[in-house]
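Students often ask why inverse folding is considered easier than folding. One informal answer: many sequences map to the same fold, so there is more than one right answer. In these notes we will look at a single instance of the problem. The structure comes first.
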């Protein structure tokens, strides 16, 4: 196989190719295959937007979620919602830019001034 990929213009890719999102919406995954082609969307004064395409015929079904995977995902989401300062569930994903829930961040800012 050569080192260059086929490049198609935006909305001009032939049938049989799909992006990751399109594969996922059909219940498929790339399944170990490499990028088969790409689509470029031109933009003014900026580099084009690029989307990688995969062959649909070489795609495999998405693996089902196991109970262990569901538990791990729930644990990870709980960790993202738990404030490290007050150790409470904030009720939302804590912004990485703050590093803590909003009340703790605001309280720290008030006492720092």
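Output (designed amino acids):
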């Amino acid at each position: 196989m050569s080192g260059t990929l086929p490049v198609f213009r935006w909305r001009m890719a032939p049938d049989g190719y799909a992006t990751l999102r399109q594969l996922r919406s059909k219940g498929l995954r790339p399944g170990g295959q490499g990028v088969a082609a790409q689509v470029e969307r031109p933009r003014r004064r900026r580099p084009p937007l690029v989307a990688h395409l995969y062959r649909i015929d070489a795609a495999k079904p998405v693996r089902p979620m196991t109970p262990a995977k569901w538990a791990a995902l729930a644990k990870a989401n709980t960790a993202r919602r738990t404030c490290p300062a007050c150790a409470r569930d904030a009720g939302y994903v804590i912004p990485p830019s703050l590093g803590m829930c909003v009340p703790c961040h605001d309280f720290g800012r008030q006492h720092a001034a």
